[in-house]
């Protein structure tokens, strides 16, 4: 029997992380030179920790902290990493494991194993951090640590700076590293793009498999399980980039359906349109793919009108995208194409330019056009530099207002949001103050 997949998981060269570290060093050294600061100190990051489920001894499946993954590619928990700004040497600090670890969790690897696996200059144990860094910079009493601390403008959460016993013996800088390292993540290398491409390819293949097996009477979660099986079985993708959204019927109007309170559990009915938003993660790098199709295989005329309005917006934006183009302009282009299509379909009436001025497009497209994609589904860097976030409806949801640059990787979100709430908002925008209309 032929395999249902034409793909196989590729080997990811460790050179990818060498390139990431070199990019950071170049940018950091340039910044220090421009600000008349000496080229010394250590970039110092703390990797992720394993977590148990509440008060139990059940350990959740570990996934590395994204900035640490970007620089070192380490899959195990409990690590620290450093980069010597002066020499460029990379250092990993490995947790010293107890002897009974081998009985319960497997072989205890020697330090040489991690040095070879992750292609770093040196490897020590985490309880040696203070002594090693002071020895490497013995000419100063308190070596400088560039720690990661800054705002993620997608989540409004702050990255956590490294903590360890003895950190008071160092000078620390909490402001320099974050914007520089985040900007490095914005522009992808060819090796990064190749990993993202595989994650997208296996996810796309899985979406096609889901479409083939979709039938009236199935549960949404059954389609989710087909996707998860395919990407793991044939792509080696143990992690998803985000919680799967398998929405049908009116659930399709819920942008982040699929969470614990809305758990992909509706039964598919004849006449439903499915909106499936699912993406696999491979070797830390993610994908993000959304597709819509009729459950019974045939669009109604109304469904076709909406589908083609979104498709036309998609095609227009893809054609217009190039380095130097404003992301804000791309969002407005998508809105205008959708409004034009709705007018042609006699869904709305009036002058489209006036509708754009009044921000009517935000009723149907309340989210931003898309987001940066990489090690995180919503990769950071949207508002690091350039225009600030707009306060206008729809535009304030944009995850960036930057201009496009070569090396950026984007996920485009096109929807024509037709929930009952959208229609109510539309009525109120046309007849303000008349909530009984």
Please, could you describe this protein's structure?
The protein starts with 14 loop residues before the first helix and ends in a 7-residue tail after the last helix. Strands 4-3-2-1-5-8 form a 6-stranded mixed sheet, sandwiched between helices. The radius of gyration is 25 Å and the shape is globular. The longest helix is centred in the middle third of the chain and has 24 residues, at 190-213. Helix 1 packs across helix 6 and helix 7 (190-213) packs across helix 8 (220-235). 36% of the residues lie in helices and 14% in strands. It has helices at 15-34, 66-72, 101-104, 111-118, 129-136, 177-186, 190-213, 220-235, 301-320, 327-344, 352-357, 361-364, 420-430; strands at residues 42-46, 80-84, 90-94, 122-125, 144-147, 151-152, 157-158, 171-173, 239-240, 245-248, 273-278, 280-282, 285-286, 289-294, 370-372, 410-412. It is of the alpha+beta class. It contains 13 helices and 16 strands.
Low-confidence stretches: 426-437
The helix/strand order is HEHEEHHEHEEEEHHHEEEEEEHHHHEEH
- The shape is globular
Strand order of the largest sheet: 4-3-2-1-5-8
User: Rg from C-alpha positions?
Assistant: 25 Å
Largest sheet: 6 strands, mixed
Mean pLDDT: 93
State the distance separating the first and last CA atoms: 60 Å
What structural class do the secondary elements suggest? alpha+beta
* Count of extended strands: 16
Total of helices: 13
Beta-strand level of the residues, as a percent range? 5-15%
